[in-house]
User: Fold this.
Amino acid sequence: MARTLPESDQDWSALNQREESPEQVHLPAWGWLAMAFGLAFWLRGPLAGLLDGPAVGTWTTVFVSISVQALPFLVLGVVVSGAIAALVPPGWLARALPRRPLVAVPAAGLAGVALPGCECGAVPIAGRLTARGAPPAAALAFMLAAPAINPVVLVSTAVAFPGRPQVVGARFLASLATAVVVGLLWARLGREAWIDRNRRPNLEGETRWRSFTQTALHDFLHAGGWLVVGAMTAASLQVAVPRSLLDAVAGHPVLAVVALAGLAVVLAVCSEADAFVAASLNQFSLTARLVFMVVGPVVDLKLIALQTGVFGRRFTLRFAPLTLAVAIISGWAVGWWLR
Amino acid sequence: MTDDQTRSLLLVVLGATAVWLWWSGEALNYVRPGLAPWLLAGGVVVGLLGLLPPLGLLGQEGTAQADRHGGHHQHRGRVGWLLLVPVLVVMVVQPAALGSYAVASRATVPGGGHEGGFQPLAAPVRGAVPMSMAEFVTRADRDPDQSLAGVRVRLTGFVAPSEGHEGGYRLTRFVIFCCAADAEALQTVVRGDATPRARDQWLEVEGTWQPRPPAAEDDPSPPAPVLHADLVRPVAPVRPPYEYSVQFSG
Assistant:
């Protein structure tokens, strides 16, 4: 068998194939890059004028904010992902984890307590865990639970709702329940073919350092590119849909819950901050605000984009609606008990 | 140049942009100050990842076998190029902090929950009590003891248009929790300023609150508090531009 480069190099060599065919322009990819920067600087004046309109100004600020806010968490995620690729032997996870989903999924969900941070980091980690042989249901439960029930998020929830510790408990319960239920449903109904496994670098026989760097590079470029897609979508919807629409439905018991679930998807706020946003939505019932905090860390526009990048489109088409439904029901049920 | 080098260039440019945002303080237009050092760390790691291949530090190529799905990868590799979009936006437009045009859909009212009562006001400085917009609006809307009544206060914010027949303009501050995507606007109506003020002009306003009973806890949009200004001074935009708690925790 021929020795070739791992996938991540192939990705980029795709850009060079244009160069290889003689009838096309001989401009390597870095040339395009330099041209893009040159053009951007040359057109700076007119472009800045064009992008100066009020709606566009808000769009650029929100878009850059989501990107900038997510970058450190994404970097943390791909570094952990690289470490998993380098240090965890293939097949070890499959042997080490309990075989029965009824044990493995709740355990993986609870393990989410150990990953402080935001939801962006958890996606590449879960992708790497499945690539290393962990059962998808367990890795997905971890991915859903980690950004919602880690200590940093629980503390910020307690700070956002002073004097109401039951909100922290309710959030913990509803989020963990969401992760476990989605994980168990996936164990029962999920198909292996829905997860795109072609998108990982082949690391067989590589040194640890090279496994680490290749994985981190590969994951960062894939997840990062998709994150930008998510940030652009979220910024567009934020500018296009006025939030005052929410006030119209705040008093309705059912519509209020649906509206705040939708707001959580559109806002794409990081999970460390969503409790403060929820606390400020005080025209809504506590149940609706709990649903907001349960949906936000598991389904939002940047997460949908990230998951598409890591697991593929066929996966996301099924996983995102399932998770959204389970999160709403779970938040609603716990919120009802909270009253 | 190979494509490895192009990829490296992309990552170094991205990392450098993140570091520059931190270094110049522009990052504060987008995220809360606590996140800025993490942006620096993230930018450094991304830049190092980009520098590894040209420095020959990627490690020896192992015996990885050919991946036979190469055809699928051509599209996926390109998604990484989208990372250039935020870089170009930052370089070309340098998006400013959120301003008056973003207010419309983001106005908020601080909640109650002050069973223990409010703390006493800070001491006046040069004839007025300086306070954050969050403290002013929270006291105005929620304090049953009306601690603001008759007190000269000093507020800083930018000008946003008033609504309906309330007159004057609305002095505004955004409060953010994590990044500007979750920003909410705190506002007070300013009356008694004879000079017309341009939208988004930053002002320091001294004056007294027009007393009214606390807003009902479940009122989604009580009218904004009103400040009768007796001294208004244009100031440079405040850095950092945002406040970081929607509620003065008195």
In short: Residues 211 and 292 of chain A are 39 Å apart (CA to CA). The radius of gyration of chain A is 22 Å. Chain A is about 75% helix and 0% strand. Chain A touches chain B through 101 residues (CB under 8 Å).
